[in-house]
Design goal:
The chain is globular and about 45 Å long. It has a single domain, classed as Sufe protein. Chain: A (Alpha-Beta Complex). It has a three-stranded antiparallel β-sheet with strand order 1-2-3, covered by helices on one side. The chain is of the alpha+beta class. The structure holds zinc ion. Zinc ion (ZN) binds next to helix 3.
Length: 154
């Protein structure tokens, strides 16, 4: 069976044509590594100077399995233009969801037409959950390098 058959069209598409792949000069960076699978990502993040620290740009580079790369692609696409506090909330909610919590607020429903929902299915493969979350936890560390962006909720 091909990757496309197992994980579906959305993840296959993000894996084959990753969005926001590349570096950003002068950005905040953070690197993450998942020893279980060998995935490596480097996140590049540019936040605005205003009080909300809006995401002006976010890109990634790395070498990893198809799930890791597809997840990073979906993440970077999703957070453009979002305030840092909202991104942190999304990351936390998504992590809880992937770790098996039901009814997590702030995420698309299980049957929503949304690329993020394609990642929910990876919960069926517990050893791959870290592949999904690597870009997310790494991005969170990047955001938290800007101290005043971490805890503010509007
Ligand atoms: Zn992986």
């Amino acid at each position: 069976m091909s990757y496309r058959d197992v994980f579906g069209e959305i993840l296959a598409d993000h894996h084959e044509s990753p969005r926001n792949y590349g570096e950003i000069q002068g950005a905040i960076t953070e690197e993450g590594y998942n020893p279980l699978c060998g995935d490596k990502v480097k996140m590049f993040l540019k936040l605005s100077e205003n009080a909300e620290h809006t995401v002006e740009a976010c890109k990634f580079e790395g070498e990893g399995c198809s799930i890791c790369m597809a997840s990073a692609s979906i993440l970077t696409e999703r957070i453009q233009g979002q305030p840092a506090a909202k991104v942190n909330e999304l990351i936390e909610a998504f992590r809880e969801k992937m770790q098996g919590k039901e009814d997590v607020a702030g995420l698309p429903a299980d049957d929503a037409d949304d690329d993020l929902v394609a990642l929910y299915g990876i919960k069926r493969f517990p050893v791959r959950i870290k592949c999904v979350l690597l870009a997310w936890t790494t991005l969170k560390k990047a955001i938290n390098k800007v101290p005043e962006s971490a805890g503010e909720t509007a």
